[in-house]
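User: For a teaching handout, I'd like to show students what a predicted protein-ligand complex looks like in token form. I'll give you the sequence and the SMILES for zinc ion. Please answer with just the structure.
Assistant: Understood, here is the input followed by the structure.
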Amino acid sequence: MKYYIGVDIGGTNIAVGVVDENFDIKCKGSIKTNAPRSAESICDDIAGLCKSLCEKNGIDYGDILGVGVASPGIIKDGVVVFASNLQFDNVPLKAMLEARTGKKCAVCNDANAAALAEYVAGAGKGYHSLVAVTIGTGVGGGIVLEGKIWEGFNGAGAEIGHIVTVPGGRLCTCGNRGCLETYCSATALINDTKEAMINNPDSKLWEICGHTDNVTGKSAYDAAEMGDEVAKNVIKKFIKYLSIGVANIITLLQPEVVCIGGGMSAEGETLIAPLDKLVKESGVIRSLSKRPKIRAAGLFNDAGIVGAAAEVIAED
Ligand SMILES: [Zn+2]
């Protein structure tokens, strides 16, 4: 059996896992990111964790064939060109980690890693093309075509969250207006749920949350399950906008699988079924007999580890 290590650098935690050639995670561990701190210090800790994880789990570190790293930000040729939450600016992460781990390393963007993970071991396993839409604080994405991540010639592609969905709409952090993520991120859902509560004092959302401060991305779903029409409308709008984004992706690429990931994907069919129906009803794909499959992500929190490992396996 061949072993690889996948490293997922998040804003809060750095997760490290040993993955075999079938993408099964053999063991994993994590440390606090404690950002911002120097890239040197973060790399020292990652290399240390890689070694200690193997030691603790009876895996010979000498058997590790490569280390893949998923990092936030814009990555080009192993360099983190820019990552705002890590405060990385032109950090040669690949070279720094190769020096510390003694292994061949590969670095890719975390959203791309998540898409690659779903392609090799999750919702897209066995298919040839997949687009992942990850719904979290923002909306991220990744495109995998015939086993390769498509990130644009400059590394700035697959910014699905910034597809303009409503011209002149809500102001986005990117400076544009009406981007998908201003309507379809968990942040947007929470804000819309709060607004609906304030406008509807009789909504069951008040029973569930007590106060607008307690609203989560799940609150509207919980209230809708209790039959609350206000919450149902919040979700309906959320899915409507998401369907516009997904329909645009499909119109452009016709991938075999569109995978919806992030915390929201835990809603499963409650989210996927109405989304699929709306996408089916929209535009050019109506007349096609072979349609892309819309699926919930299968890997959840491990996608970064598996995708990072898959990136280094692909280069092996
Ligand atoms: Zn934007």
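For the handout, you might add this sentence: Residues 126-298 form a domain with the Nucleotidyltransferase; domain 5 fold (CATH 3.30.420.40).
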